[in-house]
TrEMBL record:
Region (Disordered): 1-30
Cofactor: heme
Protein name as it appears in the record: Cytochrome P450
Lineage: Bacteria, Bacillati, Actinomycetota, Actinomycetes, Pseudonocardiales
Residues that, per the record, bind heme: C403
Short name of any one Pfam family annotated for the protein: p450
Coiled coil ranges: none
Keyword Iron: yes
Gene Ontology MF term list: heme binding; iron ion binding; monooxygenase activity; oxidoreductase activity, acting on paired donors, with incorporation or reduction of molecular oxygen
Family, as annotated: Belongs to the cytochrome P450 family.
Composition-biased stretches (Low complexity): 1-11
Gene3D superfamilies on file: Cytochrome P450
Keyword vocabulary terms for this entry: Heme, Iron, Metal-binding, Monooxygenase, Oxidoreductase
């Protein structure tokens, strides 16, 4: 079993060869009511979790709605145990229950074991190396169009501009096109769907609330999005030219039946809807946020901005990718991943009961000076050469559930950084850095990563 970490006062030390003593003491963690913990976690996790770690150690038990019993993990060995563990024991799909109302029960993010394996296998070809090479030209074209329109000399939210761009890009990946009245409406509604704070999330899990105010408006938007997706699926099913197309919807419509030799259809409309909305939501807000944080940091750091601009001019995508990776290290878009236990598990000398959700904490590891020297400094050079030690950088999660779009998002980020830095000089709209703010399950720059751009001379 995993060794203990120096940060963990609660972890027992023991001789190397003796079995780990499993403690039946309660898991360490705050004793606040569930509602208070949910609020603190929902709005202030970036400050609360490091404080809890100093107080309780690397294993921190929380009570949070809707998962209820959650255990945050900050020790690398403990996290390796989770990522390397059996998918039958560590259920990511059940762990991601918070996303179910938006993404649906069939979503690759929400399923486990064989059902998950099949969904992942079906989606994978759209994100492998060959597919990525095919997307580059499209990403470059859409990026040029977006960046060419940026206002000069006035402050604007780079996060908003990145959201618009990454949504265009993922619409093309998913549907092959992004024009037409249906997709135009979908584009506007999807922006509203991702724009949720901790209070809105309550409505997702309480159908009763959906009769009132903002929760009602949100539910109506979701219903309209579903109607648009189902209409698009129906049209595409009726189209005769699917085999030559490589967008995700056409790929999914041409998969053979699950049981060879039967006449059962491939994927149902509900399954298709769930995978499409998953890619549309997971595939744009995340990359947009990572890019916005990168612009935020570059605008405040003239030396790194010069190095990145030189890399853009020289076509040095290695350095541009390092900028994106360092942005994801310093500002993890998703601060932890989740696995619900199907049986009791021993971690760090504690027995964690079945039904609890363990959460490897990306943010706590990324900000740990034991793994990243001077962790709050923005230094892309950490990722040139050998890069940080294995397991100390995991913005995309890990194991069999590692993000399906990791390669796609790094490609997208490098292309966008190159296009922006080739044209513009960046500066901040004010000296003070922006605070991180919780937005749905992501952590975004509170003021939208506002920058001022000017044409390079
Ligand atoms: C900066 C960008 C991104 C970040 C930080 C990010 C992060 C993550 C994380 C942390 C997970 C959970 C992994 C785990 O549980 O171990 C995940 C899963 C996933 N992501 Fe991403 N993601 C990004 C971009 C994308 C993009 C561009 C796409 C699609 C085009 C995508 C699609 C998915 C899918 C489908 C899953 C579910 C994988 C599974 O459960 O098998 N993500 N992502």
């Amino acid at each position: 079993m995993p060794t203990s970490h120096p940060h963990s006062p609660a972890s027992p030390t023991r001789p190397p060869d003796s079995p780990a003593p499993v403690t039946t003491r309660p898991l360490p963690g705050p004793r606040l009511p569930l509602a208070v913990q949910t609020m603190l976690f929902g709005s202030l996790r970036h400050r609360w979790l490091p404080w809890l770690r100093r107080r309780h150690g690397d294993v921190i038990a929380l009570r949070i709605y809707p998962e209820r019993s959650v255990v945050q993990l900050a020790d690398l060995d403990h996290i390796r145990t989770v990522f390397g563990g059996s998918p039958e024991l560590f259920h990511a799909g059940e762990g991601n229950v918070i996303l179910k109302p938006a993404m649906g029960e069939h979503s690759v993010l929400l399923t486990d074991e064989n059902v998950h394996k099949r969904a992942r296998k079906l989606l994978m070809p759209a994100f492998n190396g060959a597919a990525l090479r095919g997307y580059r030209g499209m990403i470059e074209e859409l990026t040029e169009r977006e960046v060419g329109r940026w206002p000069r000399g006035v402050a604007f939210s780079s996060h908003q501009r990145m959201q618009a761009l990454t949504l265009e890009i993922i619409l093309r990946v998913v549907f092959g096109v992004s024009e037409g009245p249906r997709l135009t409406e979908l584009r506007t509604l999807l922006r509203r769907i991702v724009d949720v704070g901790p209070v809105d999330l309550l409505g997702w899990h309480n159908p009763g609330l959906q009769r009132f105010g903002p929760w009602r408006r949100y539910a109506l938007t979701q219903r309209r999005v579903d109607a648009l997706l189902y209409a698009e699926i129906a049209d595409r099913r009726a189209a005769g030219d699917l085999t030559g197309r490589d967008d995700v919807l056409s790929r999914l419509l041409t998969v053979p039946p699950a049981e060879p030799g039967t006449d059962s259809a491939g994927l149902s409309d509900a399954e298709l809807r769930d995978q499409l909305i998953t890619l549309l939501l997971a595939g744009h807000e995340t990359t947009a946020t990572a890019l916005a944080w990168a612009f935020h940091e570059l605008a405040r750091d003239p030396a790194t901005l010069r190095a990145a601009t030189r890399a853009a001019d020289d076509g040095d995508e290695g350095y541009l990718e390092a900028v994106a990776k360092e942005s994801m290290r310093l500002h993890p878009v998703i601060s932890e991943v989740a696995r619900k236990l199907t049986a009791d598990v021993e971690i760090g000398g504690y027995r964690i009961p079945a039904g609890h959700t363990v959460m490897p904490s990306i943010a706590m590891v990324h900000h740990d000076p034991a793994h990243h020297a001077d962790p709050l400094a923005f230094r892309p050079e950490r990722f040139t050469g050998g890069g940080p030690a294995a397991g100390t950088w995991f913005p995309f999660g890990g194991g069999v559930r590692r993000c399906l779009g990791a390669g796609f998002s790094l490609l997208e980020a490098s292309v966008v950084l190159r296009a922006v830095l080739s044209r513009y000089h960046l500066s901040p709209d004010r000296a003070r850095p922006e605070r991180p703010k919780a937005r749905n399950i992501t952590t975004v720059p509170a003021r939208g990563a506002r920058v001022v751009v000017s044409a390079r001379t």
